[in-house]
Design a protein that fits this description.
The complex is a heterodimer.
Chain A: E1 9-11, H1 16-25, E2 30-33, H2 39-44, E3 52-55, E4 65-67, E5 71-75, H3 80-85, H4 87-92, H5 94-101, H6 106-111, H7 114-120, H8 127-133, E6 137-142, E7 145-150, E8 155-157, E9 160-161, E10 168-175, E11 182-188, E12 199-208, E13 211-220, E14 227-228, H9 230-236, H10 243-256, H11 267-286
Parallel strand pairs in A: 1-3, 2-3
Antiparallel strand pairs in A: 4-5, 5-10, 6-7, 6-10, 8-9, 11-12, 12-13, 13-14
Helix pairs in contact in A: 9-10, 10-11
Chain B: E1 16-22, E2 25-31, H1 37-43, E3 63-66, E4 69-72, E5 85-87, H2 111-118, H3 128-141, H4 147-154, H5 165-178
Parallel strand pairs in B: 1-5
Antiparallel strand pairs in B: 1-2, 3-4, 3-5
Helix pairs in contact in B: 2-5
The chains are: A alpha+beta, B alpha+beta.
Chain lengths: ~290, ~190
């Protein structure tokens, strides 16, 4: 069932403060609208929950990629195409570029934004696993000011976040601390391009004297939210890469994830693939 | 297709004017802000070359260029086209494509369109406008794409007739036609 288009308002405030002021004056009435790659699909399906939208696509305050010696900071409107074209990201945060390249097609990558991917909060999104591996932080702005929160824990449930109704995701900050980490990303979907993942696996580890000194492991599409597998990380930390340590970590991971049967895959398949991807990650680390 | 949802009398948006440039011509569209660019292009200037396939950004049949970027016009609200330069399939033949040294004369097919004809890249034709726009956009960004880059450039466009091979071969042929002396990249 399609939506009745005249019933939807879309306005384009001239700057960020205008957007925030309206969101404060009428909280939960106005919803930010960027590239439309998620929201327009809901419109077409007749499932768009809000009626009034503020187009933020042209707001310069929310664009751009800035580098300091300690951080790379991305404007919330950074598109997947922007991510793919940035040399610093390609060098230091390759999982994010890889995730961007695996998101939709060229046309989607030109319009879809990192902030939108975070706000939409789908457990099957491609960029959040990479952002969690890099321990990203989010800047949330409102008319009253701004606050930085860790991205880990930002989700409160399936498609639910800690974003207040008067707040907007403004920037995403990545600590430049990936030197020496071996990094791994793999998305398993129905086809190579334009698929929504059945399982997505992003991970990084530091190896010291043949042992896993530190590990970060994040999975998509295996729980109500994108999941950082903290217990599996613990199981691997300090271990040598052996078949026994892998098996032990796989047992922990099998308990840590909670995949379901849905239109894209089955719980059983997802569980098997998740464990196999952990094995492939460890294989890469021992190579 | 008629809209099936009841209008909400209290939240009815007003029509807006969208001044933009379509295929090099200044145009004003009058429509609701959340109307899909796809529908407005087809209904107002009558540019029906842009096709609706899935209506959810999966198939690429409605691909157009918006300020030089390939987009699926079913996912672009009309209001976001204010001030934009839009190119549709109607603007490719005889258009000012930098893929050729000189501007095409009126109605002359672009190298990509010609290659689709020569190499059987079109069958039923529904996906063809989107395929041509995607290929044109790719070659303008990257005149010498590798095979993998061509496949990636077309990955967002679905075709139910050709099996893709002839489309791929058409784009490879167009690369050769536009840069006859270039070494093919693999």
């Amino acid at each position: 069932m399609r939506s009745y288009v005249p019933a939807y308002e879309l306005q384009a405030p001239r700057d960020l403060s205008d957007v925030l002021e309206r969101m404060t004056r009428e909280p939960a009435v106005w919803k930010p609208f960027a590239g439309g790659t998620d929201l327009m699909v809901l419109l077409e399906a007749g499932k768009l929950p809000h009626r009034r939208f503020l187009s933020i696509w042209k707001l310069a305050e929310l664009r751009g990629i800035e580098e300091t010696p300690t951080y790379v900071t991305l404007g919330a409107l950074t598109t997947y195409t922007d991510l793919r074209r940035n040399e610093v990201l390609a060098r230091e945060f390759p999982l994010l570029c890889r995730a961007a390249a695996e998101t939709g097609s060229v046309a989607t990558q030109n319009r879809g934004t990192l902030g939108g991917n975070i706000a939409n909060a789908s457990p099957a999104a491609d960029s959040p696993p990479a952002l969690l591996v890099y321990e990203a932080a989010l800047e949330l702005v409102s008319a009253g000011g701004s606050r930085w929160v860790p991205y880990h824990g930002f989700w409160t449930g399936y498609k639910q976040t800690g974003l207040r109704a008067d707040e907007l995701i403004c920037r995403i900050r990545l600590p430049r601390a990936t030197h020496g980490w071996r990094q791994y990303y793999r998305k398993v979907g129905t086809r190579r391009a334009q698929a929504i993942s059945k399982v997505c696996f992003a991970a990084a580890a530091r190896i010291d004297a043949g042992r896993i000194a530190d590990a970060r492991i994040v999975l998509g599409s295996v729980a109500p939210t994108v999941l950082r597998a903290i217990e599996t990380e613990k199981a691997l930390r300090g271990e040598k890469l052996t078949p026994a340590s892998l098996r032990a970590a796989q047992e922990v991971l099998a308990l840590e994830i909670a995949p379901i049967d849905d239109m894209r895959s089955t719980a059983r398949y997802r569980r098997r693939v998740a464990l196999n991807l952990l094995a492939e990650f460890c294989e890469m680390l021992s190579a | 297709m008629p809209d099936s949802r009841e209008p909400d009398a209290h939240a009815r948006a007003r029509k807006i004017r969208v001044h933009c440039e379509i295929n090099g011509r200044a145009t004003t569209l009058e429509t609701y802000p959340m109307a899909r660019l796809l529908d407005v292009l087809r209904e107002q200037p009558g540019l029906t070359g842009t096709k609706e396939g899935c209506g959810e950004g999966e198939c690429g049949a409605c691909a157009v260029e918006l300020d030089g970027a390939l987009v699926n016009s079913c996912l672009v609200p009309a209001m976001q086209a204010v001030g934009a330069k839009i190119r549709t399939i109607e603007g490719v033949a005889g258009g000012n494509s930098p893929l050729r040294g000189e501007p095409l004369h009126d109605g002359q097919l672009s190298a990509i369109q010609q290659a689709f004809l020569t190499h059987g890249g079109a069958q039923c034709g529904i996906c063809t406008p989107g395929m041509i726009l995607a290929a044109t956009n790719l070659l303008e960004r990257n005149p010498q794409p590798s095979d993998a880059q061509i496949r990636e450039g077309l990955a967002g466009n679905l075709c139910r007739c050709t099996g893709y091979t002839k489309i791929f071969e058409s784009v490879v042929a167009a690369c050769r036609a536009t840069r006859p002396h270039a070494e093919p990249r693999r």
